[in-house]
Design brief:
Shape of chain A: globular
CATH class of the largest domain in chain A: Alpha Beta
Number of strands of chain B: 14
Order of helices and strands of chain A: EEEEHHEEHHHHHEHEEHHEEHHHHHE
CATH superfamily of the largest domain in chain B: Metalloenzyme, LuxS/M16 peptidase-like
CATH architecture of the largest domain in chain B: 2-Layer Sandwich
Distance between the termini of chain A: 35 Å
Strand content of chain A: 15-25%
CATH topology of the largest domain in chain B: Cytochrome Bc1 Complex, Chain A, domain 1
CATH superfamily of the largest domain in chain A: Metalloenzyme, LuxS/M16 peptidase-like
Low-confidence stretches of chain A: 1-26
Order of helices and strands of chain B: EEEEHEEHEEHHHHHEHEEHHEEHHHHHE
Largest sheet of chain A: 7 strands, mixed
Oligomer: heterodimer
Strand content of chain B: 15-25%
Helix content of chain A: 40-55%
Structural class of chain A: alpha+beta
Number of domains of chain B: 2
CATH architecture of the largest domain in chain A: 2-Layer Sandwich
Mean pLDDT of chain B: 93
CATH topology of the largest domain in chain A: Cytochrome Bc1 Complex, Chain A, domain 1
Distance between the termini of chain B: 41 Å
Mean pLDDT of chain A: 92
Number of helices of chain B: 15
Structural class of chain B: alpha+beta
Number of helices of chain A: 15
CATH class of the largest domain in chain B: Alpha Beta
Largest sheet of chain B: 6 strands, mixed
Radius of gyration of chain B: 23 Å
Chain lengths: ~450, ~450
C-alpha cells in the first residue's frame, strides 16, 4: 500500500507554459503543458544530479477491467516490451540499456506506467521509444504465449505460494460487491488461461492514446526542452475518442462480512477493512485528510497506537498495521492487517483491534499524538525530495487517478489543519461494523512437507 | 502494510552496486577514541543520513545463534532509562528515523533526520543513548525473543526463504556463514538477557565501529557530532578475523519437498571476498550473464525464450570471507528439471566461451552510461560509501570505478570465470513438489 502520508510537497504551483524565472527559482515547480492531441506533459526540474526519470502513465489498470478479462492491463504491460513495427522484441530494453538506462513498468488498479531512469541528456531516447510503442505495438502470438506463461509464474510467486497474498485476494473479493477493486490486479488464473491475443489488441487500441496518457519527467532537465521533445515525438499520434468510463460505484454494504481462508501456513493472519471514501468521491475533502491522519495515529511509526499498544503493550500482535490510500480512483477500504503473537488467536487480535477503534470513537486522541504525525508528514515532505523517482511517482499517480497533481501541493497544509475532533468524528462516521469485512487466515497442516 | 498493490514487469535483482561516482570526495578522520569516520557533505536538502557499522554480524554468534540479530533489535527497545515508547516518541515527534539491521558480516544502525537543530539535536541525543546505554529490559527482551521465534516459524511459509537457508547450510558447511541470521528455534529459545549484554559489551566498541555520514552539515559540525556520539565508547578489542570459507569440493543437488506450485531453485557456490583482484572481471561478466535484467543471458534463456520464470538472475555477493555466486529462479513444479538444465547450460557455455565482444561493449555502455544513477540521491551516496568503507576498499574506489570497468577485456572475463566458477563445485538447491517422474 502506498501511503500518501509519505507523500507530496510541491512548494509552488506553476501553470504557465513559458518559463520566465531563473532555473534556481524553478526548483520544485511542476510545469504543465497539454499537447494538441491531449497528451499531458508534467515536468519538475531537480538539478541535484545529472540524471532524470521519465515516466509515462496510462489511465488504465485492473479497475477498468470486467469479469472474464481480469489481468488484461497487466499482461498488456508485459507485451509492451515485446516489439513494435520498427523494433523487434526486447529491442526497447536493449537500447535503453546501451544508453546506461534502467527501466521497468508497473500496473496498479488505476494505472499502468512505464519508466526509464537515465543520464539526463538521454531523455530523447526514452521519449522516442515511448512514443513509438504508444501507437505502433506489434502484438504477436508467439511472444504472447510465452509472456502469458511468465505472468502465470508471477502470479504463482506472488499469490498461490504466498499464504498472506492469497488471503488478501479472497479478502478483496469478499469486501467489494460491484466495485472493480474486487478483482486482483494480476488477474484470476482462469482469466489468464482464457486470455486471447485479440483481447490485448482491443485493450491496446482502446486505452493507449495520447489523450489517455500523462508524461512525467523529473530531474536535470529544462521544462521547455522537454515540451519541445514531447511535441516532436508525440504530436503525430492521433487522439482517440473515449466512451466515458462506467462508474461502477460499490453498492452500500449493509452488514458485516466475515470469512475464513484456509492456507497451508504456520501462523494465522487477520485482515479487516472498512468502506471509506477517497478524495475523488467527495465534495468536501476534510474527512479524507482526517482519515489519512487517523491511519497515522494508528500506524505511523513505532510510537503509534498499534505497535505501542498491541505489539508492546498487550502483546497480542507480533506485527500489525493500518493503511489507507486516499488517492485511489474509487472508494476504497481503510485496512488493518496483523499477525497474532504466539499463543494468541486471530479472534483475540481482531477483538483488540476493535477495541482500539472503539477508543478512537469514544475519546479524542491526545494532541501530542497528532503533533507527532504532523511532524512526520513535514519531515517526509523533505525526505522524499531525495528521490526523483518518488517525486515523479506522486505526480503521475495523482494525475492518473483523477485527483490531479495540484493536490500534492496542498497535502502538508491540509494535514496540518486536522484537529483531534476531526479524527474522532471520522472514526465514528466511517469505522462502523456494518461496513466492515473481516477475514481470518487459518493455517492448515502442510501436505507433503517434511 | 505488507500488501503489494502493484505488479512490476520484472522482479530483477541488481545486487552488486558497491560502485560509486567519481565526483564526491569522501572525507575521513578519526575520533579521539580511534573510530574511523567517513563523510560526504551535500547541499540542496536539509537532511542528514548516518550509518554506524559494527563488526558485529551473525558470524560472531558462536553457539548462541541469533544473538547478534536480537542484540541489534533490542537497542532501541529501552536505553538510558527510557522505554521503547519514549524513544520512539522522541524520534518521531521531530520526524527522525532510526533502524537497526544485522547481516552475516555486520550490524548497522541507520539514522535520518532533518538538519534543523530543533530536529537534529534531540534525535541525535536519542541515537547517542541507544548506542551507548541500551538497557535490554527483560519485558522487551521476552517479547522481541517471542517475535523472533514467530518469524523463524514463518520461514516455513516461504519456499524461497527455505531454499536460501538450505543453500547456505550446504555451501558454507562448517562455517558460521551457514547459519540463519535470526538463528534457530532451539538456539533463540535459550537466549537470556545476559547473552545480549555480553555480546553488546564485546562487539559494540570503538575498535569495531565505522561511522558514515552524508548530508547537509559542515565538516566541523560533523566532527563535533560524531565525537559526542561515539567518544565515550570504550576502545574494546577488535573482533577476530573471520575464518576462511572453504571451497565446495563437490557440488551436490539438494531437494526439499514443499507443497508449493513453484519450485524455487538456487544454483550456487562461494567465490568472492571483498576487494578481490578478479572483482571487476567477474562483475562485468555477471552483468552479461544475469545481472542486468532483460539484457542478460539468464533472462533471455529462462524467461524470454522459454517462459519459465518471472524472475531469473545471477549475482556475486562479495563478503568479508568468500560470499556466494548465485543463479536463481522460480518455476512451476513440472518445469523444474527443464529450468535446471537451462540454468546449468547457460552457466557452462558462459564459462567455456565467455561473452561476445558485442555483449561486452553493451555491458560497459550500460554500466558506465548509468554511472550517475548510482549516486543521484543522499540515500544512494550513503549506501555506496557504506559499501566501500565496510568492505575496506580504498577511498578512491569511486574515482577508479569507470576506468576499472572500461579496462575489462573478454579474455579477462573468461579467465576469471574459468578459474573462479567451477561447474563441479556448484550446489543445486530446489524447494517445491517433486514430480513422480522427476529425474
Amino acid at each position: 500500500m502506498k501511503k500518501l502520508s509519505a507523500a507530496v510537497l510541491l512548494s509552488t504551483i506553476f501553470y504557465a507554459l513559458s518559463g520566465f524565472a531563473s532555473s534556481e527559482n524553478l526548483l520544485n515547480i511542476v510545469h504543465e503543458k497539454v499537447l494538441k492531441n491531449g497528451l499531458k506533459v508534467l515536468v519538475k526540474e531537480d538539478r541535484r544530479a545529472p540524471v532524470m526519470v521519465s515516466q509515462i502513465w496510462y489511465k488504465v489498470g485492473a479497475s477498468y477491467e470486467h469479469d472474464g478479462i481480469t489481468g488484461l492491463s497487466h499482461v498488456l504491460e508485459h507485451m509492451m516490451f515485446q516489439g513494435t513495427d520498427d523494433f523487434g522484441p526486447g529491442e526497447f530494453s536493449k537500447i535503453i540499456a546501451e544508453n546506461g538506462g534502467r527501466e521497468n513498468a508497473f500496473t496498479g488498479a488505476d494505472y499502468t506506467a512505464y519508466f526509464q531512469t537515465m543520464e539526463a541528456s538521454r531523455l530523447e531516447v526514452s521519449l522516442k521509444l515511448e512514443a513509438d510503442r504508444m501507437h505502433n505495438l506489434n502484438l504477436q502470438e508467439k511472444e504472447f504465449v510465452k509472456e502469458l506463461q511468465v505472468v502465470m509464474e508471477e502470479r504463482r510467486m506472488r499469490t498461490e505460494d504466498k499464504p498472506q497474498g492469497q488471503t488478501y485476494e479472497y479478502f478483496k473479493a469478499l469486501a467489494y460487491t460491484s466495485s472493480p477493486y474486487r478483482n486482483p490486479i494480476i488477474g484470476w488464473m482462469q482469466d489468464l488461461e482464457d486470455m486471447q491475443l485479440a483481447d490485448l489488441a482491443d485493450w491496446y487500441k482502446q486505452w493507449y492514446s495520447p489523450n489517455n496518457a500523462t508524461l512525467v519527467v523529473v530531474g536535470d532537465v529544462d521544462a521547455q526542452q522537454v515540451f519541445a521533445l514531447a511535441e516532436q515525438y508525440f504530436s503525430n499520434i492521433l487522439e482517440v475518442s473515449f466512451k466515458s468510463v462506467k462508474k461502477r460505484i460499490e453498492v452500500p454494504q449493509v452488514g458485516i462480512r466475515r470469512s475464513i481462508v484456509k492456507q497451508q501456513a504456520k501462523v494465522p493472519y487477520v485482515l479487516m477493512g472498512y468502506k471509506v471514501p477517497v478524495l475523488n468521491s467527495v465534495e468536501d475533502d476534510a474527512d479524507i485528510y482526517a482519515l489519512e491522519v487517523l491511519s497515522g495515529i494508528l500506524s505511523g511509526g513505532s510510537s503509534a497506537r498499534l505497535p505501542s499498544r498491541l505489539v508492546r503493550g498487550s502483546q497480542v500482535a507480533s506485527s500489525v498495521s493500518a493503511g489507507y490510500d486516499m488517492a485511489a480512483r474509487l472508494p476504497t477500504l481503510f485496512l488493518f492487517d496483523g499477525v497474532p503473537a504466539k499463543g494468541v488467536s486471530a479472534e483475540q487480535l481482531e477483538s483488540a483491534l476493535l477495541e482500539q477503534i472503539q477508543l478512537l470513537q469514544t475519546s479524542p486522541v491526545e494532541q501530542k499524538e497528532l503533533d507527532r504525525i504532523k511532524a512526520q508528514v513535514i519531515a517526509s515532505s523533505v525526505y522524499e525530495k531525495d528521490s526523483n523517482f518518488y517525486q515523479a511517482m506522486q505526480i503521475g499517480m495523482l494525475e492518473t487517478t483523477g485527483v490531479g497533481w495540484q493536490k500534492g501541493e496542498q497535502y502538508v497544509d491540509k494535514i496540518k489543519a486536522i484537529s483531534v475532533e476531526n479524527i474522532q468524528a471520522v472514526a465514528k462516521k466511517y469505522l462502523i461494523e456494518d461496513h466492515l469485512t473481516v477475514v481470518h487466515m487459518q493455517p492448515q497442516e502442510m501436505k507433503n512437507a517434511h | 502494510m505488507r500488501i503489494n498493490s502493484q505488479c512490476f514487469i520484472a522482479g530483477l535483482l541488481f545486487l552488486i552496486n558497491t560502485a560509486c561516482f567519481a565526483v564526491p570526495t569522501i572525507q575521513h578522520w578519526q575520533t579521539s577514541n580511534g573510530v574511523n569516520v567517513y563523510f560526504i557533505p551535500t547541499d540542496g536538502l536539509s537532511i542528514l543520513d548516518a550509518r554506524l557499522v559494527f563488526d558485529a554480524g551473525s558470524v560472531r554468534d558462536g553457539s548462541k545463534k541469533g544473538v547478534a540479530a536480537l542484540t541489534s533489535n533490542m537497542l532501541d527497545q529501552g536505553a538510558a532509562g527510557q522505554s521503547a515508547q519514549d524513544i520512539a516518541e522522541r524520534l518521531e515527534s521531530v520526524g527522525a528515523q532510526l533502524g537497526t539491521s544485522t547481516s552475516r558480516d555486520f550490524t548497522s544502525i541507520s539514522f535520518r533526520s532533518l538538519t534543523d537543530q530543533n530536529a537534529l539535536e534531540p534525535s541525535w541525543n536519542v541515537l547517542k543513548e541507544v548506542l551507548n546505554e541500551p538497557n535490554f529490559p527483560i519485558v522487551d527482551f521476552s517479547r522481541e525473543k517471542k517475535r523472533t521465534l514467530l518469524s523463524i516459524t514463518r520461514r516455513e511459509e516461504s519456499p524461497g526463504t527455505l531454499a536460501q537457508l538450505a543453500l547456505y547450510k550446504e555451501i558454507f558447511k562448517g562455517h558460521a556463514y551457514a547459519s540463519a541470521i535470526q538463528g534457530e528455534e532451539s538456539t533463540v529459545s535459550q537466549l537470556v538477557v545476559k547473552d545480549l549484554q555480553n555480546f553488546y559489551q564485546q562487539y559494540y566498541v570503538a575498535s569495531n565501529l565505522k561511522v558514515i555520514l552524508v548530508g547537509g552539515l559542515s565538516k566541523e559540525q560533523a566532527q563535533n557530532m560524531v565525537e559526542e556520539l561515539v567518544g565515550d565508547l570504550p576502545l574494546g578489542v577488535k573482533a577476530n578475523a573471520i575464518s576462511k570459507v572453504n571451497d565446495v569440493q563437490r557440488g551436490v543437488a539438494i531437494h526439499q519437498e514443499y507443497p508449493s506450485q513453484q519450485t524455487h531453485m538456487m544454483y550456487s557456490t562461494p567465490v568472492l571476498k571483498n576487494n578481490d583482484a578478479d572483482y571487476f572481471a567477474l562483475y562485468v561478466g555477471n552483468h552479461i550473464l544475469g545481472g542486468s535484467g532483460f539484457s542478460s543471458r539468464i533472462v533471455k534463456e529462462i524467461r524470454e525464450k522459454r517462459g519459465l520464470a518471472y524472475s531469473a538472475y545471477s549475482y556475486f555477493h562479495p563478503m568479508v570471507e568468500k560470499g556466494p555466486f548465485l543463479m536463481g529462479l522460480q518455476t512451476r513444479n513440472e518445469k523444474a528439471s527443464e529450468a535446471a538444465s537451462a540454468v546449468k547450460q547457460t552457466l557452462k557455455s558462459f564459462i567455456e566461451e565467455g561473452p561476445t565482444e558485442e555483449e561486452l561493449i553493451a555491458a560497459k555502455k550500460n554500466i558506465m552510461g548509468g554511472f550517475a544513477l548510482k549516486l543521484d540521491s543522499n540515500k544512494k551516496l550513503l549506501a555506496n560509501v557504506v559499501g566501500i568503507v565496510a568492505s575496506g576498499a580504498s577511498l578512491d574506489y569511486l574515482n577508479n570505478f569507470m576506468g576499472q570497468v572500461k579496462a575489462v577485456t573478454r579474455e579477462q572475463v573468461i579467465d576469471a570465470f574459468q578459474r573462479r566458477v567451477k561447474m563441479n563445485s556448484m550446489v543445486m538447491v530446489t524447494v517445491g513438489q517433486a514430480l513422480p517422474n522427476k529425474e
